[in-house]
Amino acid sequence: MAKKWVYLFREGNAQMKSLLGGKGANLAEMTKIGLPVPPGFTISTEACTAFYENNHTLPEELFNQVRTAFTELEATTGKVFGQKEQPLLVSVRSGSVHSMPGMMDTILNLGLNDETVEGLAKLTGNQRFAYDCYRRFIQMFGNVVMGVDHYHFEHLIEKQKGLRSVLLDTDLTTEDWKQVIHKFKECIYMYTKESFPQDPQEQIKKAIVAVFKSWNNQRAQIYRRIHQIPDHLGTAVNVQIMVFGNMGNDSGTGVAFTRNPSTGQKELYGEFLINAQGEDVVAGVRTPEPIIKLKEQMPKIYESFCEIAQKLEAHYSDMQDIEFTIERGKLYILQTRAGKRTAQAAITIACNMVEEGLIDKHDALLRVAPEQLDQMLHPCLDKDAKLDVIAKGLPASPGAASGRIVFEADEAEYLTKQGYKVILVRPETTPEDIHGILAAQGVLTSRGGMTSHAAVVARGMGKACICGCEQIKIDLRKKEMAIGSLTLNEGDFITIDGSTGHVILGEVPLIEPTLSEEFKQLLAWADEVRHLHVRANADNPVDAKKARELGAEGIGLCRTEHMFMEQSRVPIVQQMILAETLEEREEALKKLLPMQKEDFYGIFQAMDGLPVNIRLLDPPLHEFLPNTEELAVEIAKLQCDESMDRMELNKKETLLRKVRNLQEFNPMLGHRGCRLGLIYPEIYAMQIEAIFLAAAQCQTEGIRVIPEIMIPLVGHVNELKTMRELVNEVATKVQTQTGETIPYTVGTMIEVPRAAITAREIAAEADFFSFGTNDLTQTTFGFSRDDAEGKFLHTYVENKILPENPFITLDIEGVGSLVRLGIHEGRSRKPNLKTGICGEHGGEKRSIQFCHDVGLDYVSCSPYRVPLARLSAAQAALKK
Ligand code: ADP
Ligand code: MG
Ligand code: MG
Questions:
Q1: Residues enclosing ligand 1, CB less than 6 A?
Q2: Residue 721, class by beta-carbon neighbours within 10 Å (0-12 exposed, 13-18 middle, 19+ buried)?
Q3: Where's the active site on this chain (predicted)?
Q4: Which of 26, 77, 93, 330 maximizes ligand 1 atoms within 8 Å of its Cβ, making it the mutation to test the pocket?
Q5: Which residues of the chain have pLDDT under 70?
Q6: Where do the CATH 1.20.80.30 domains begin and end in the chain?
């Protein structure tokens, strides 16, 4: 039997998303539960894959199946595809497994040509409508299938309006549209040297191919990259009988969310336009009316829409984003999907739905995307600050953002790369602006509603967004915008508040957000189910406190080098490094000791009762020294100076010589980590002494301390053994001296392959392992991170030589194998060995899943990632 490529809506259901795409599966499901969905069929994503595998040709058998499906549509409607008297018209719509609003292409009114348009006019008794549909079709087909820029068509419509001295599209008559259609066809021929096809069979074939191709257009690719959607999935094609929202004032089209996608509030949130076709709302070219107005204008329709919305939400037990069209007083549902929402809305909706009994706590945990959570921690506007509000638009996506005005997406991308903060200001944004939205701090548009694609996409990315701010008059040519008598230029600062819709002049200082009760509730549920502990990387009391506030259960990595880089300490640190005798070095270390002690005291205090993992000095010493080139320049300057100071010159020359001596060919693999402690044990000894002195002081003050002392970059057990002896020796000395017994442990980082491979031996000397996956990734690949990211890694990822940047998402097959081996070998020697991870991967969702799977005890990440890690760890436990 031939393969099935085509599924009628009545043959599918919501479970068939990977085959039918989200849109197709949900159209089928809605058909099944008896909602008013115009009939149609779906060409599967498998056909898309086949199309790409067979050199951009469609499977033979596919068209026979399409024809059979058409026969069924014709039988149900009594209309015939391509026939003049009773023309059947369809939409051809993209739709992949993951919804990608506006990123791929859709064509409406397909089946029209010079003959059928006449039939449509007769059938509906509405000539103007028929020709309006026809020109829309040629426009979409010309653009999507034949590749003629949108702009050319818009230009021709503008010209026609000018000719007739009218302002609105709706003022153009049948005759006008006929003339426009003629010009459209000429335009298509001019740019493509091909005629607009009159044969509906040819139209449908080409449209299907175009939709498949749109899977790989640039904006879809960018969207997939941002949202980590795999490239191989492909899209389905939905062919559906047209219904018309543009048949007059008893018709219309709209979009609604069953709950507010910005705040999560339980209220119907939507917009509509009377006498319009679907694209008009979502494309953001006209600013639509809020849905509540529909209640006044068409009360019956409003009521039945509310009913359907509720039914759909209950059916999917999730917030839905629903597209509808009203044709001459009859309501049709054209799409439903889980609505995209901000983090705030996701959390509120999940918590409310648990309360309403729609879902349980575990569902709620799986409903919130961990990577979205950092939106909750973004700074916000100070409510008490004095604000110079200059305009107000629709609050489309919450959050506050300040930046310089830019008017073009490319410009936004360029300036952001140069290090500027920008706000993208546009009359409307289209999906083609996605790279600009991504780069900008926030988006402001003068047209378009809250359900426009721009708003949906911004919310999905957690960008502040204000739409439909009609007070703003934008002049793209002059690169300026006017609000009343105020004119702002490109580069001027504004601030937008996406929660209120306020546009504010200038830059406004932002403050720390407060965590909502619901946010805390959700994380408390996460804590109930997760197995992994979550710690934070912090090396000062402020970060430690923040981490604790956000739920950290200890410090997984306290880097001591940052403490050395403080301005006032640098000269002492330099003195220590450049010392030529042990005495000289010890003198410097003596000065550093009380400072280090203070550092640790503050951290222990903040982490009262929780473990604090302190790593002894790790980076190559020359990182603390002046730059040799700068020094050489200074020396040269001194030498040229008539009144030069000999002493000063001598000093600088000595310094340069010493710094040069310390320079390494390959610092990443050079004299760093425990190699420092082995060559200069007095440095580590000072740090250890400081730790124990601070711990003792805390303990006498009633603070509970649990220090874990970590030796970095161990590759051979003997390195650890020697350093551990040093720790014990100093610890004993301080404990005797202070009379305080400290419950401490000593362990190591596993961050070079040899450590993972010989983990069994190393475990003999370690109480814990902390996988330093940043260095472990560097040493496993043999990449230096900075060189890789600066030079070739980008190309590697782009060309799919590597599936992902391994410094962001843990390379499970390679680096992950070493982690697995390290845990296994380590525990085989010491069953209760504590294991954790402290690389940046500790704050990344998929890496956390891996950490759960391999049975690590904890992950450690930066303080602001702690909530993400708590939720990810819970999801990992639930996804078993
Ligand atoms: P997207 O995925 O970009 O939202 P859609 O396939 O949903 O694209 O199509 C965009 C709009 O076109 C829809 O919002 C809908 O209003 C309109 N549309 C699609 N199919 C039909 C149809 N059969 N009849 C009327 N309008 C349609
Ligand atoms: Mg849609
Ligand atoms: Mg390291």
A1: 38, 91, 93, 101-102, 106, 108, 240-243, 253, 278-279, 282, 323, 325, 334-335
A2: middle
A3: 453, 838
A4: 93
A5: 1, 284-285, 880
A6: 72-241
